[in-house]
Amino acid sequence: MKRLTRPVKFLLCSLAALVLLLACQQVPQAQTDAPAPNQAEASPIAFPDRLLATPAELPPLPYDYAALEAAIDAETMRLHHDKHHAAYVNNLNEALADYPDLRGQSVEALLSDLDAIPEDIRTTVRNNGGGHLNHTIFWQIMSPEGGGEPTGEIAQAIEQTFGSFAEFQTQFNEAGSDRFGSGWVWLVSNDDGDLEIVDTANQDSPIIDGQYPIMGNDVWEHAYYLRYQNERGEYLENWWNVVNWPEINRRYQVATQQTT
Ligand code: MN3
User: What is the CA(57)–ligand 1 centre distance, in A?
Assistant: First the structure.
């Protein structure tokens, strides 16, 4: 083989280095806890928020079981988080186990396009994906430092939409009381970007109907029965003592970012 001149060698070495550098940039970056920006862009969910990954993981409670005693007893919190929420997570993962194409999509993406889910696991994904998402939001929108009047932009929006915070509470509690059987009562940002109180059956998330959940209360009996028995209305009243307005305000801002 002909000896290469020094400039040619240098050129080849430089070329090899460049190829190596470009190849390295093709290697996908390791996954981190924070959702990758491209994951949010690829999702059919229109709202930029922290998306829930699959395979799902049970998030730890952000406070002690007894921290919300102003509204909810420790034993209810323990069962609700460790048993009920854990079961939704496990059931969702089991359903997705045979569908590698679905595994890895966010829970929000799965729920917002249920028609795309194979029929044999559609109801399981709807119930357990919804259960996982609803409860993850629920733990976050409550706090031991919660209660009192709303703050920030959500306070103004509630007043504009419902006339006053007291009127909003009344309508929210009525919707929660009137929800027959198991389900949730929500404050959502609807299709028009307006605030609206809605209720959903079972573990249905408002996301299924294209609405963004800003706050919601769980009116399944498992959420209140140990302490309140059949007095759902009393649970709904006391629940306001632990409502975490800073987090609800953050969720409202996510919703308004989308609609403006
Ligand atoms: Mn529940």
Answer: 16
Per-residue pLDDT tens digits for 29-71:
333 344 444 333 333 445 556 799 999 999 999 999 999 999 9
Q: What is the average pLDDT score of the chain?
A: 87
Measured in Å, residue 85 CA sits from the centre of ligand 1 at 7
Q: Exposed e or buried b for every residue in 57-93, given b needs 16+ CB within 10 A?
A: ebeebeeebebbeebbeeebbeebbeebbeebbebbb
The model's pTM is: 0.82
Cis status, amide bond into 55, omega within 30 of 0: yes
Are 196 and 212 in contact by the 8 Å Cβ rule? The answer is: no
- Cα dist from 79 to 35, 70, 113, 225, whole Å: 29, 18, 31, 12
The tokens describing 219, both together, are 């009116």
CA 172 to CA 177: how far, in whole Å? 9
- The Å distance, Cα 182 to ligand 1 centre, comes to 9
Contact 12, 4 (CB under 8 A): yes
Rounded distance from Cα 195 to ligand 1 centre (Å): 23
